[in-house]
Amino acid sequence: MDKYQEEGQLLEPYLENIVSPLMSLVRSKTMELGAGTDELLDIIKPLCIIIYTLVTVCGYKSVIRFFPHQVSDLELAVALLEKCHTMSSATALRQESTGEMETKCVVLLWLYILVLIPFDISTVDTSIATADNVDGPEVVPLVTRILDICKDYLSSSGPMRRMSGLLLARLLTRPDMAKAFSR
C-alpha cells in the first residue's frame, strides 16, 4: 500500500470490495466471540491494520463509507473499544507493531459513523432499560463510557487523538447530547 501513498484516489474504486468484507468480519467476530475475550483481539488486529493502512492512504472519509452502521452495533462497538482501551502496551512502538493503535483508531472511526443514528441514544442503551428515570439529570451510561475513553485518548499524541476528537465532535453536537456537552 505504501506505493499508493501519494495517489490514494487510485484505490478508491476498490475500497468497497476491500473494506466491507473486513469490517463485516470485525463485526461478526465481535458478535460471535463477545467483546470481552482476548481471542477476539488476536483475530481483529490484523484486519484493523489493513483498514487503518487504507485510512492513511485514502483518508478516513473515503473508507468509513463502507463501515457497517446498524443501530445494534453501537453497544457492540463501545464494548470493543473498552476492551481495546484496557489492553495497552508499555510503549508506542509496541502498540504500532502489535496493531493495538490501529485497532483503537478503526473502532473510534466505526463509532464515528454509529453515533449518527437518528434515534435518541438513551433508547439504544440497554443498560438503562431498567432505570426508572431516563430523562433525569444524568448522562446516558453508553455516552459516559465513550466520553471517558475519548478523554484519555485526547491526552495522547498521534492518530488516536484525532480520531477521538472527531468522534467527540460528532457525538457532542447531537441534539440529545446537551447534558453531556454541558458536563
Describe this structure in words.
- With 183 residues, the protein is mainly alpha-helical.
- The protein has ten helices and no strands.
- The radius of gyration is 16 Å and the shape is globular.
| Category by helix and strand content | mainly alpha
Mean pLDDT over all positions: 85
* Shape estimate: globular
In terms of DSSP E residues, the strand content is under 5%
Ends apart, CA distance between termini: 42 Å
**Element pattern in H and E:** HHHHHHHHHH
Query: Based on DSSP secondary structure assignment, what is the total number of beta strands?
Result: 0
Q: Residue share in helices?
A: 55-70%
User: Please, what is the oligomeric state?
Assistant: single chain
Main beta sheet strand tally, sense and closure: none
**Rg, Å, rounded:** 16 Å
Helical segment count: 10
| Contiguous uncertain segments of 5+ residues | 90-96
In short:
This protein is mainly α and about 180 residues long. Helices cover about 65% and strands about 0% of the residues.
Summary tags:
single chain, 183 residues, mainly alpha, 0% strand
List the helices and strands and how they pair.
Layout lengths: L14 H19 L4 H21 L1 H4 L9 H14 L5 H7 L1 H15 L6 H4 L16 H14 L4 H14 L5 H5 L1
Helix pairs in contact: 1-2, 2-6, 4-6, 4-8, 6-9, 8-9
